[in-house]
Amino acid sequence: MKNILVTGGAGFIGSNFVKYMLNEHSEYRIVNIDALTYAGNLENLADVKEGTNYRFVKCDIRDSATVEKIFAEENIDTVVNFAAESHVDRSIVDPQAFLTTNVLGTQVLLDAAKKFWKLNPDDKYDRSFREGVKYLQVSTDEVYGALGKTGMFTETTPLSPNSPYSSSKASADLFVRAYHETFGLPVNITRCSNNYGPYQFPEKLIPLMLNNCIKGKPLPVYGDGLQIRDWLHVSDHCKGIYTVLEKGRVGEVYNIGGNNEKANIEIVKLIIKAAGASEELITYVKDRPGHDRRYAIDNTKITTELGWAPEYTFEQGIAETVKWYLDNQEWTEHIISGDYANYYDKMYKNA
Ligand SMILES: NC(=O)c1ccc[n+]([C@@H]2O[C@H](COP(=O)([O-])OP(=O)(O)OC[C@H]3O[C@@H](n4cnc5c(N)ncnc54)[C@H](O)[C@@H]3O)[C@@H](O)[C@H]2O)c1
Question: Of residues 141, 203, 261, 292, which has the active-site annotation?
């Protein structure tokens, strides 16, 4: 059995990944560490039982003593690092949390992996590591910056992040690269496009709009709404990460994307239709500073080299997702009754 440390496993993608692995790949034991920030929600994992295959530990990835203790106790041989501050709007209000969690936290995990996996830890020139270990960094297409009307991000596109969020993710990616180049740590980096699906925190576009539709509240659309994102169902992202864990060439970056470019306003109108709401709810608000205009992922490397392909069509994925949020309004309500309500006012009241 392999022992995989999943960080940020109480968040949107991490909780989907934990469940995917437990259901589909029982050869892995999952140790999930999460600091349970505003975005971490253990209700996402309500149906996952602690036991031989799964353990949860409340732990901040910046806490090197606890991270090292878990590496030792659990004989960790694989890391998948989802833990991050992930919301661009929040990074504009408070960049420092992004720097400390996304960059320093990543470096703490890399150091622990190096310390526990290196065969001769006292020899700084020795690059040999235990068989079968891997560190996988879950990154984002946002590290590449913005595209014009044409073109796509490939793995060799220069990093050109524009927000404090994407800058922190790009910095973390460079540290992951450096630990591979300098120490020989076996790593992969995945860079995925926008995810959608169940358990996404209701500050992100799709659950936010859907929830406002249900409540008959205005739908705040940034600028002209023509910012283009490339959408991928979260379960296809999880399968892509697993594929890279198993088959990815050490040291390589893999883009993960679904060839689904949609303007934000298109998504909003699709949600309005699915929820049976009115387009009159659309309210254009002042654009986010530095808002990237277009992202598009070239997924040729992961599809041709590793044989991964998205299974969801966008139409099927969005229909299922809308149904999930409609059937699970209590889940959203539990979140909204907390910190989220204040945050919402702060972000949109004067926009
Ligand atoms: N959501 C997307 O569309 C998308 C796309 C590409 C890449 N990503 C990347 O995937 C990862 C997960 O994204 P998400 O949308 O699930 O985010 P999320 O905000 O829903 O979840 C992040 C999780 O990390 C935890 N966390 C935050 N700081 C922590 C810390 N210091 N120590 C331990 N845990 C901490 C939070 O409690 C939360 O459970 C992120 O690294 C993000 O950059 C996200």
Answer: 141
How many Cβ atoms sit within 10 Å of the Cβ of residue 205?
A: 20
Other C-beta atoms within 10 Å of 293: how many? 12
CA distance 302 to 282: 37
Candidates 1.10.150.170, 3.40.50.720, 3.40.50.620, 3.40.50.300; correct CATH number of 2-198+232-258+294-314?
Answer: 3.40.50.720
Ligand 1 atom at minimal distance to the Cα of residue 169: 43
Ligand 1 lined by 142 (C-beta under 6 Å): no
Q: Has this prediction a pTM greater than 0.90?
A: yes
Token readout for 62 is: 């910046």
Is 142 a known active-site residue? Answer: yes
Strands of the sheet with 253-256, listed across from one edge: 54-58, 28-34, 2-7, 78-81, 134-140, 187-192, 253-256
pLDDT digits (tens, 9 = 90+) for 265-313: 999 999 999 999 999 999 999 998 888 899 999 999 999 999 999 999 9
pLDDT digits (tens, 9 = 90+) for 26-73: 999 999 999 999 999 888 998 999 898 999 999 999 999 999 999 999
Q: Where are the domains of the chain?
A: 2-198+232-258+294-314
What's the gap in Å between 102 CA and the centre of ligand 1? 9
